[in-house]
Design brief:
With 639 residues, the chain is α+β, with helices and mostly antiparallel strands. The protein has 21 helices and 21 strands. The strands form four sheets. The chain has a nine-stranded mixed sheet with strand order 1-6-5-4-7-3-2-8-9. The chain has a five-stranded mixed sheet with strand order 10-11-14-12-13, with helices on both faces. Helix 9 (342-365) runs antiparallel to helix 10 (367-381), helix 9 (342-365) packs parallel to helix 11 (393-399) and helix 17 crosses helix 20. Bound molecules: adenosine-5'-diphosphate and magnesium ion (MG). Residues 33, 37-38, 41, 79, 81-84, 92-93, 97-98, 100-101, 125-126, 171, 254 line the site of adenosine-5'-diphosphate.
């Protein structure tokens, strides 16, 4: 059979071009990537062999071997892992298969200096071999098959694959080193790199050397183990350096950043497990993928089982990376059987509790650091407030941080309650698309004037949990300021001198009659376009606003649902008037004096449309709005 020549996928070519020409200072990481792949391959086979022991029966001592040939200038990394079929070779080493490399390609800017920096940020996996190699060969044989395949490429756009002899399963990767990479022919250099990046790999990484006995002149192959070769999470904390943890995080989590928090503990007693978990410092790019999968690997007694154990980590902690290694599950458990396993459920509960309690500690000890975390993952954590389980709700509400109308930084609910005004019994919030929009809402005016704090809920998930948080927090229910029931009258405000004068004024009965007349007239004109018309004290600068009735959907959530075609028609709202606004006052007077009858219908519609515009919505009938508006201007100019 002749070798089949194929072109790399266009994105791979682009990536290889950058990698091959990169003046990247830490190119030694190629070795970490190849060892990491070899370890993954061993993990995969060890798992498959649980149900089909024949797959590894001939050689169950998993191992990664490194050797050099100084004359040929080659460095070889081989493993006795799962290997690859011909199709897998094409899929894995000809296209962008891994998440890291696809993130790399997506972030390319075309500016070569910046792009080289991305190698460090995202890692380019297997392709990083081309940083140090002018040619790479891969000889591989899938466990359980008889045929091997040989893949070769100089990284310049094409590669070939052909059938080849391979006596044993696994993969051998041979790098033909570039002239400027001959440092990687030295054992001491390799040893340093392995110690630095790969010490935590739970399989022996051995260096092969052929030594000649000085007396007998016999040649013998020696194997020196370069790493500790024990699972990092089973070692005691005191033996593990921060760098060890970091490297493990990058390998196990396929991560590019440094961990923000590292949690390492061993649970003993009713359930036994080791847990080594990390909170990343950056958002993984698949954080908001619809599957909402977590990335914690499940091991049983040091054997990798799956990284897709659904019940292990709740989806609202899916940013966690790392390992849970359980002592009490049977090794031969199938992935399907894990789904509803009560033991997995118990571990999940325990892990969740522990993570939340560590986050709470961090929130207390390191306010600023915690707020950075909240900015990165708060929106995900809040998903835990919504849905069936209410067990962690209180802790999560304690952990939650918000922006608010009276404070500069982030506030907690406990802070908020501590600042509540006399007579205030609810936690006020306003929900919307972003902070700028909610800040501009007319419904906030009265609250700001009275100095009553309002929380800004601007994550899409907020609407959902807040609607279902019936118990509120610390006995205080949540209340939207865009709802009819959010009442300011009972709350003692920070009254200014001007306000104080006002309250002493005798009640102006005439003004009250005028407003009542105005309300009656507006109701008549607008009919079922509004649910009600009334005065409010939630406004100070704007003449009007719209609010939702207690029993209706809050307005922002209705807007969201309409955007997703979940509801088609906006339900009628309550139109509220600011009785202190000069426009409202004058209109009232006009009606009371029996004037302006020809004008009142237009005025009513213009008030409603103003309120709609303040909500960020178009007037209900733009053509009619423009006509009315022009007419009013014409009259004003004539007067
Ligand atoms: P990642 O490891 O993040 O998936 P890589 O670019 O490092 O991305 O590797 C791509 C894929 O190639 C791996 O997912 C794996 O399927 C395959 N692969 C690489 N090296 C080996 C190996 N030594 N044995 C078996 N498969 C391998
Ligand atoms: Mg890899």
């Amino acid at each position: 059979m002749t070798a089949e020549k194929r072109s790399f996928q266009a994105e791979v070519s682009k990536l290889l071009h950058i990698v091959a020409n990169a003046l990247y200072s830490e190119r030694e990481v190629f070795l970490r990537e190849l060892i990491s792949n070899a370890a993954d391959a061993c993990d995969k086979l060890r798992f498959l062999a649980l149900s089909d022991p024949a797959l590894s029966a001939d050689d169950s001592a998993f191992k990664i071997k490194i050797s050099v040939d100084a004359e040929a200038k080659t460095l070889t990394i081989s493993d006795n892992g799962v290997g690859m079929t011909e199709d897998e070779l094409h899929g894995n080493l000809g296209t962008i298969a891994s998440s890291g490399t696809s993130a790399f390609v997506e972030n390319l800017s075309g500016d070569s200096k910046k792009d080289v920096g991305l190698i460090g940020q995202f890692g380019v996996g297997f392709y990083s071999a081309f940083m140090v190699s002018e040619k790479v060969e891969v000889l591989t044989r899938k466990a359980g098959t008889e045929t091997g395949y040989h893949w070769v490429s100089d990284g310049l756009g094409e590669y070939t694959v052909e059938e080849a002899e391979k006596a044993t399963r696994g993969t051998v990767i041979t790098l033909h080193l570039k002239d400027d990479a001959s440092e990687f022919l030295e054992r001491s250099r390799i040893q340093t790199v392995v110690r630095t990046y790969s010490d935590h790999i739970p399989f022996p990484i051995v260096f092969l050397e052929t030594k000649t006995d000085p007396e007998t002149k016999d040649e013998a192959e020696t194997e020196d183990t370069l790493n500790q070769a024990s699972a990092l999470w089973t070692r005691s904390k005191s033996e593990i350096s921060e760098d060890d943890y970091k490297e493990f995080y990058k390998h196990a989590g396929h991560a590019f950043d440094d961990p923000w928090m590292t949690l390492h503990w061993k649970a003993e007693g009713r359930i036994e497990y080791h847990s080594l978990l990390f909170v990343p410092s950056q958002r993984p790019f698949d954080l908001f993928n619809p599957e909402r999968r977590h990335h914690v690997k499940l091991y049983v007694k040091r054997v990798f089982i799956t990284d897709e154990c659904e019940g292990l980590i709740p989806s609202w902690l899916r940013f966690l990376k790392g390992v849970v290694d359980c002592e009490d599950l049977p090794l031969n458990i199938s992935r399907e059987m894990l789904q509803n396993n009560p033991l997995v459920g118990s571990i999940s509960q325990a892990v969740t509790k522990r993570v939340l309690s560590e986050l709470s500690k961090k929130a207390e000890k390191d306010k600023e650091g915690y707020e950075t975390f909240w900015g990165t993952f708060g929106a995900v954590l809040k998903e835990g407030l919504y849905g069936g389980e209410t067990e962690h709700r209180e802790t999560l509400l304690k952990l939650a941080r918000f922006r608010s109308s009276t404070q500069d930084g982030l506030v907690s609910l406990a802070d908020y309650i501590g600042r509540m005004k006399e007579g205030q019994t609810t936690i006020f919030y306003i929900a919307g698309e972003n902070e700028a929009t909610v800040k501009a809402s007319p419904q906030l005016e009265g609250f700001i004037k009275k100095g009553v704090e309002v929380l800004y809920l601007v994550d899409p998930i907020d609407e959902f949990w807040v609607q279902s948080a019936y118990d509120g927090f610390d006995g205080k229910p949540f209340k939207s300021v865009t709802r009819g029931g959010a009442d300011l009258s009972a709350i003692a405000g920070e009254t200014t001198d001007a306000d104080a004068d006002k309250t002493d004024e005798p009640k102006d009965e005439g003004a009250e009659d005028a407003i009542s007349a105005l309300i009656a007239s507006i109701k008549l004109s607008l009919g079922d376009k509004v649910k009600d018309v009334r005065t409010t004290d939630r406004l100070s600068d704007s003449p009007v606003c719209l609010v939702a009735d207690e029993t209706d959907l809050d307005m922002n959530i209705e807007r969201m649902l309409r955007a997703h075609n979940q509801v088609t028609e906006a339900s009628p709202r309550i139109l509220e008037l600011n009785p202190d606004h000069v426009l409202v006052k004058n209109l009232g007077k006009l009606i009371k004096d029996g004037q302006g009858a020809d004008f009142m219908e237009d005025a009513a519609y213009l008030l409603l449309d103003q309120a709609r515009i303040l909500e960020g919505e178009p007037p209900s009938d733009t053509k009619a709005f423009t006509r009315r508006f022009s007419e009013v201007m014409v009259k004003a100019l004539a007067a």
